[in-house]
Amino acid sequence: MNSNSSKSRASIYSADEIQKVLCGFVPSAQAVPYGAKTKGVYFDGYPQIIKSEIAEPKYKVKVEKDIMVPMRDGVRVAIDVYHPDAEGEKFPVILCWGEWGKDSQDCVEWMADTPQLYWDSPFWDGSMEACNYNYTVPRGYIHIIAEPRGIGNSEGKNLGDPTLHSRQDIYDAVEWIAGQPWCDGKVVMMGPSSYSRAQLQAGQEPSPHLFALRPDEAPEPFAGEDFTGIWDAILSKIHTGAHANDHLPPVSYTQPENIAQPRAFSMYSKEEFKEKQQELLDDPDVKYNMKYYSEVRYPASSSVIDDLLYFKHPVPLDNGLQNIQVPMYIGTCWNNRLYEWGSFEAYRKANLTDDQKKMIVYPPMFPARPYIWYHDEALRWFDHWVKGADNGIMDEPNIKLFVMGINKWKFENEWPVAGTKWTKFFLHPHGGLKTEPVQGDREPETFTQPAPYLDPKVYCLRYSTEPFTEDTEVIGNPALCLDAALDIDDTNWMVDVVDIDPQGDARLISSGQLKAKFRALDEEKSKPYRPVHLRQEPVPVVPGENTRYDIALLPTANVFLKGHSMQVIIRNQDDMRSAMVRNGIYLLPFMRTVTHSIYFGESHLLVPII
To answer: How open is the CA angle 573-574-575, to the nearest 5 degrees?
Structure first.
């Protein structure tokens, strides 16, 4: 069913041929003497300006399980409290609030010395993320792991995000904690993913006893400036235990019937729900994908219908990140669309002064689990805000970046980086990618993607630079401006930017996507390097009409070594036969055959060269 002609340059895309993860990486810190040069310096480990060291471990850990903490409406949530073994002393408290169940986090006891690396290990479980109390408690903190209402041993009903990351419940928990005889009145929060989302909510309406946040891998689904109009399956896979080796969120032992139901059941009348359900069932992307057809047909089995309905008819949303008012040190990873967009947006938008916020960006994809890395960074941050330590962290530039290509770290002061040379690399016929625009009128290049249930192969067009003649540092937000026509009214544009070494091996440095029907820009928020698309009703493409598409790509930091090339890959499907998809990471396939025609002239990749 493939209609790519013999004259077409279209090639087969294989996701497994592109390296996406830095396998075998284990992070370490690098001490930087106070006063040493940091601007433009690369470090082998994540750099730390050291004025004073983190406290040495001197306490043993004792635990109290299943303490029930009352919320303002009388519902009680369950917490485990890990204390320093120091009778009568008061300590600041680290609160870890997330949906994954406190009792499963016990695995840190026997797994902390053998953390499982993402992609390297079949036993990586992203849910093991309530942090390492055997690191924090001996150094003078109380560590609390909480279960939101309707989770594990907690009472109440799980209504999904509104209860899992409830600002009111976290406020009440912090107030209760601050009033306990073992707490010095100061509470901080840490943890990735769900534990991070809870922090971004708590920081918007904080208790006066909440002093600092250390969120990692901050997901802001459906509420950030990363809207593309294409449904991302990964959140569904995470919540159904189908991403990597993730386990399921635990249903409350006390009220198992209170598991969250799809929001659509309460949002619409019975008649409205049936109408919207049928609209999804008639959509080719669902109709010809038997898995999702079944989940929409029997919606009580999963929340997929909520997500698909939202992407079908998106509405403007405000994630409230501009309301964050608690000092925050946020972390994220490269090449991770679930977390990278939200983390950068939280850093940019938070209502904080420069000395109240910091960011660190790790190697690509996900840190190891159980989540035990970078705890020294967290304690340096907390020690400053709750113990008054002048340890050097406030003397550091605001941003630490892992730089791919050379696998080293560096400091930066701001984002975008000062001195960025925004450079247009124009798409050229026959696969060129050059800083000079195309001269004269040229015929467009085409590729046809058959509906994947007819032909599972993914077709693409590739555009590459000549090998770089010197090491070239790229740090910032690339973006693709594309002039193109379709033979039907929609497609999914998907873009990879890769680093090609002299042997032809490819490594991913950035990616992005956009559903053609949602190409309209939010002119007030958009910048050339960061196009932001409106959440509104879709606008079909006029078949055959040359149309402009501005596609945001994930922020990145990479050094293209001398002799390496930069390549742009343009396609409309994920490779559903790849290891990444087997790990639960993919976008909903576009289930219609479509021919794409790419025009030259203004089509270009905007690259932030330092």
So the answer is: 115
Helix, strand, coil percentages (3-state) for the chain, rounded to 5, are 20, 30, 45
Query: Do the Cβ atoms of 151 and 250 come closer than 8 Å?
Result: yes
**Whether 115 contacts 370, CB under 8 Å:** yes
CATH code for the domain defined by 53-226+318-394: 3.40.50.1820
Q: Across-strand partners of 568?
A: 463, 497
Q: DSSP states of 427-464 as a string? A: EEGGGEEESSPPPS--PPEEEEE--TTT---EEEEEEE
Architecture in CATH of 11-22+418-609: Sandwich (2.60)
408-413 contacts at long range (C-beta below 8 A, 24 or more positions apart): 408/42, 408/43, 408/44, 409/30, 409/42, 409/43, 409/44, 409/45, 409/46, 409/47, 410/40, 410/41, 410/42, 410/43, 410/47, 411/38, 411/39, 411/41, 411/47, 412/475
Contacts of 247 (CB under 8 A, 6+ apart): 100, 104, 125, 127, 241
Using a pLDDT cut of 90, give the percent of the chain over it: 89
For the chain, domain boundaries: 11-22+418-609, 53-226+318-394
CA 418-419-425 angle, to 5 degrees, is 120
Strand pairing report for 91-97 and 142-146: parallel
Distance between first and last Cα of the chain: 45
pLDDT in tens, 176-216: 999 999 999 999 999 999 999 999 999 999 999 999 999 99
Q: State pTM to two decimals.
A: 0.96
